[in-house]
Amino acid sequence: MEQLPLLIYLAGLVDSLKLYIGIITAVGSVYTALAFSIIPATLADSMYISFTEAIKITKAKATLIIILIISGISALLPTSRTIYLMMGASAASQLAQSETGTKVLTLLNAKLDTAITDELTPPTTNTAR
């Protein structure tokens, strides 16, 4: 449980990280779209590709690949709510496996058993006068 403050801190950072990744993806997408729309227009006049045009095409392709990788990572990142739920489930599991948790579950089961038997037994009526 000594890791809990660190996990809470990291859960708070996840949403900011997703926003940052979204901004990088948007800027990279605009750059790639502009690069792929400008390069064919410059190549239409000539039958050959110059070295600078080849470098621009390579940069645009590399940017597109990086954008796809970053978008995939962003899709796999959990939200802060999911992280909090995972921490809560882990804490509940640890509590249930502890000695106190076992005692609570035993007591709860006993109380439920008595409540069920009280509910299922018909009430006794006193008909003798």
Strand and helix map with partners:
Layout: H1 4-43, H2 51-76, H3 80-97, H4 99-120
What does this protein look like?
It is a single chain. This protein is mainly α and 129 residues long. The chain has two domains: 1-77; 80-119. It is rod-shaped and about 115 Å long. Helix 1 (4-43) packs antiparallel against helix 2 (51-76) and helix 1 runs antiparallel to helix 3 (80-97). It is built from four helices and no strands.
Briefly say what this structure is.
The protein has 129 residues and is mostly helical. Helices cover 82% and strands 0% of the residues. The chain has helices spanning 4-43, 51-76, 80-97, 99-120.
Number of domains: 2
Count of discrete alpha- or pi-helical segments spanning 4 or more residues:
4
| Main sheet properties | none
- The residue ranges in which pLDDT falls below 50 over 5 or more consecutive positions are none
Roughly how much helix do the residues carry, as a percent range? Answer: over 70%
Number of strands: 0
Q: Quickly give the structural class.
A: mainly alpha
Global shape = rod-shaped
Distance between the termini: 65 Å
Strand-residue fraction? under 5%
- Order of SSEs: HHHH
